[in-house]
Design a protein that fits this description.
The chain is mainly α. The protein contains six helices and no strands.
């Protein structure tokens, strides 16, 4: 089975060495963390709007954009999607209330 998250992580890492004039991801890295965070926020808002509008095709498209930009954020910070997957696996089978309480969240 194709591991698209690992493939994207490899590509995003390679884009750190690409020219910002020819690579969208390289241009995000060059613009810095604030620009990447803006894109994550923008895509999150567009995801919410698509869900609210009941357009499943648009929702899938916007979630893909959100995930992509989140992966760019992880790569910019030197993190890999497998770290997020490991955290999700750790939480699997644990009540959301219990998991949140274990973090000391309110």
């Amino acid at each position: 089975m194709r591991d698209i998250l690992a493939e994207l992580a490899t590509t995003l890492e390679a884009r750190k060495r690409a020219c910002a004039d020819t690579s969208y991801v390289a241009s995000l890295y060059a613009a810095g963390l604030d620009r990447i965070l803006e894109k994550v926020g923008e895509e999150a808002a567009e995801t919410i709007i698509a869900a609210k509008n009941g357009d499943d095709a648009a929702l899938v498209h916007e979630v893909a954009d959100l995930w992509f930009h989140t992966l760019v954020l992880l790569a910019q910070r030197g993190l890999h999607p497998r770290q997020v997957l490991a955290e999700l696996e750790r939480r699997c089978g644990v009540s959301g209330h219990d998991e949140k309480a274990s973090r000391g969240a309110t």
